[in-house]
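--- STAGE predict ---
source: upstream dedup step, 1 unique chain passed
mode: sequence only
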Amino acid sequence: MSFEYLKDPAQGPAWRDLLPGAPEAYFLARGEGEHAKLFGDLFTVLVSGNETNGKFGMIHCEAPPGPIIPTHAHAATHETFYVIDGAVRVFVQYPDGQKTSRLLEPGDFGYVPAGLAHAYRVEAPARLLGVLSGGFERFFQRMGTPADTADPGQPPFIPDLDRILAAGQEHDTRFFPDFSWPEGE
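--- STAGE serialize ---
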């Protein structure tokens, strides 16, 4: 299945020919990939489920400090957080109901298995690398909007509620708007 989210329907697919769309060798130079802006963050798909036969996808994210993102859970998606620069606090609720968080700094890694409620907050300008279950890398593009460059200084894109819910439904993600995390974290 090809990726067809349109930046401008008159211009055609926003990311046509940037990734091969099939399992074959390719290389990307710094700043290349499929870019999408979501809130203040710039997400770049480096490899998608199309190139890995659905096994995994990989994204790069550049994000300014900001409020905690909405708490959510992915039914079948495993998610990783590898911090290259900056600081990111990852919040997780374990199956027994216990809530915890961990501040990740450069070189730190976090893993959230499918099904666990989680959120994160960028506490210092950050660059992250994420490996996700194949196909989920498209969630950020579906909720966000295409970006032509890797410039993180582009204006924010704030999706409306319908777009957020559609992305969640398409990628089997539930949001928990009334969820709270322990104070002081």
